[in-house]
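Continuing the series of single-chain predictions for the mutant panel. This is the parent chain; the variants come on the following pages.
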Amino acid sequence: MSTHADQSIPRRASADIRATEVADLLARLAVLISKQSPNTEASIPQPIPIRVLLTVEEAAERLHIGKTKTYALVKTGEIESVLIGRLRRIHIDAINSYTARLASQQTTMTKAA
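Parent structure:
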């Protein structure tokens, strides 16, 4: 008949063996990690590609004006837009063209005054 003390010795030895195995595996893992050269491609953030076609809301944000005003400018043709299916998109060049026209109109008005 075995006693409780007899059963605890194998369990304790088993736990010690497992702890040793885990420590050994962690040490090996640390060596492997330290030997690897850092992946420079993964660590350098890639630039986000510049979007060419914007939603009306995105164009409004870029112009720092309201969405309703931007829709009105699109409706009057002051800002050119295209339809892709049912989606209305504004080319980035249309925004640049609109702002350039605004600047030249204001310069002309200032010189005339």
